[in-house]
Design goal:
This protein is of the alpha+beta class. The protein has ten helices and 13 strands. The strands form three sheets. Strands 11-12-10-9-7-13 form a six-stranded mixed β-sheet. A five-stranded mixed β-sheet has the order 2-1-5-4-3. The longest helix is centred in the middle third of the chain and has 55 residues, at 219-273.
Length: 469
């Protein structure tokens, strides 16, 4: 069972909290700079009011005690406020420190305000600021003050803690809402789908792992319906494969006994061929051909039931391979019925099982012969890494109903002389060699098959045609 720390729900929760905190940081950055600006503007307004108090006094003079009280209220060492036409008296303590830096709010940009705010937060010591700016009370009044930075920094830290606390609360609340919503919409359905798939893998025949029919129209609903269809298809395939496996075992046993019976019948038929009775002697050749077809059908069925084609490969030139096969192929066909033509053989070498490759040649040639072709032409194409053998006949072509199931087992060719396994076995032999066999074209003028085999690029096809009886 998947732990919560490794679950999708936990990851969604962490990501939600993280992204909400990132959003809060983006909000906090301008907020803290705005808070510092507001603090300094309030200081300018307070300084302006203190200067007005001095101006309202008789002769513009105040006692030292009143000046100290006004400066304590403002939180400044000195205050000067004036405009272009009037000069207001200055408030100043007896001892005034030297300023550490000047802050002019008249020319401060957004980026400068943000950088100054973080510079204040990161400052470990108190600095004395010479503050310049226009009074928020009267834009015509220019105020200059000397203040400490530490009180402003403390208020900014207090504001930051409040923002942090609020951000954590908002992020947790938002994360909880998003978490519950996503868990209800996505995570729980995905967990049910995952559990159903796991149970199906362990016991595919058990229908209790199936999910109820979903009416959702989103991706989750589509996934549930597609999973249900896939399960039904797999179950049907498993039942069919089980029946086929049982049938294959039975067919193998039957074929084994049937081949022995046919071998005995062949031996007996040889005795019939020696009979002096003309009727018996005339009936023996068709009888022998029928026995040969029955034996071939048994052999093809046994070979097709094997999971893979056994290969005994050897390295040989293509010319040697054809020299060994073509005479035997010609002798296996009815005399004079099919003429085999071969282009000049390219000088390349191939790694093949000669006996298995011969089965491909024999199957294609016998199919062409039974279809009524009189010519069987073999030509070659060779490029980098691939040797292609093209088999072309001049038969009547393959009918459309047969063409669609040409390489499927037990799909008879329609001429009554085949087992329906030849092309399926030939295709498996080509694949076992790392190549392919497929139909290129067919029609009223004949058919063209292409056999591709892996081969190094050491030769090219040449023109010319030789003829074998």
């Amino acid at each position: 069972m998947l732990g919560f720390a490794n679950s999708l729900s936990f990851r969604l929760l962490l990501l939600t909290v993280f992204f909400v905190m990132v959003a809060e940081v983006l909000i906090y950055t301008p907020s803290i700079s705005r808070y510092r600006l507001s603090y300094l503007q309030e200081k300018l307004a307070e300084g302006h009011l203190a200067a007005l108090s001095v101006k309202a006094a008789p002769d513009g003079m105040v006692t030292e005690m009143l000046a100290r009280q006004l400066l304590d209220h403002v939180g400044a060492y000195s205050v000067v406020a004036n405009d272009e036409s009037n000069f207001m008296p200055m408030l100043r303590r007896t001892e005034v420190p030297e300023p550490d830096m000047a802050v002019d709010l008249r020319s401060a940009g957004v980026l400068a305000l943000i950088l100054d705010a973080f510079d204040t937060l990161g400052q470990p010591r108190n600095r004395v600021l010479r503050l310049h700016g226009l009074s928020p009370r009267d834009p015509d009044i220019f105020v200059t003050m000397l203040i400490d930075e530490a009180p402003m920094r403390m208020e900014m830290l207090d504001f930051s803690w409040r923002i942090l606390t609020l951000s954590v609360v908002i992020s947790l609340f938002t994360a909880a809402l998003v978490f519950l919503s996503l868990r209800w919409l996505m995570v729980l359905p995905m967990q049910r789908i995952t559990s159903s798939m796991t149970a199906f893998r362990q016991r595919p025949e058990d229908p209790t792992s199936d999910l109820p029919v979903s009416t959702r129209r989103d991706e989750i609903g589509i996934a549930v319906r597609e999973l249900a269809d896939m399960k039904q298809g797999v179950r049907r395939a498993l039942r069919q494969n089980m029946r086929l496996a049982t049938l294959g075992t039975a067919v193998n046993k039957i074929n084994h006994d049937l081949r022995n019976m046919l071998a005995t019948a062949t031996l007996v038929s040889d005795r019939f061929a020696e009979s002096s009775d003309p009727f018996v002697r005339k009936a023996v050749p068709p009888f022998l051909r029928t026995l040969d077809r029955a034996v071939k059908l048994c052999s093809d069925t046994l070979n097709f039931t094997q999971e893979s084609v056994p290969l005994m490969t050897e390295r040989m030139t293509l010319k040697r391979l054809l020299d060994d096969m073509i005479p035997e192929l010609s002798s296996s066909l009815p005399e004079g019925q099919l003429a085999i033509e071969i282009d000049d053989v390219p000088g390349v070498s191939v790694s093949v099982d000669p006996d298995q490759i011969y089965r491909i040649f024999a199957n294609l040639a016998s199919n062409a012969s039974r279809a009524g072709a009189s010519r069987f032409h073999i030509r070659f194409e060779h490029d980098d890494g691939t040797l292609a053998l093209l088999f072309e006949d001049n038969g009547p072509g393959i009918p459309d109903p047969i063409r669609e199931k040409l390489f499927l087992p037990f799909q008879l060719s329609g001429n009554g002389g085949g087992s329906g396994l030849g092309l399926a076995i030939a295709r498996d032999i080509a694949r076992a060699h790392g190549g392919a066999l497929f139909l290129v074209q067919t029609g009223a003028t004949g058919s063209l098959f292409r056999l591709e085999l892996p081969c190094p690029a050491t030769g090219r096809s040449r023109g010319g045609t030789t003829r074998a009886a």
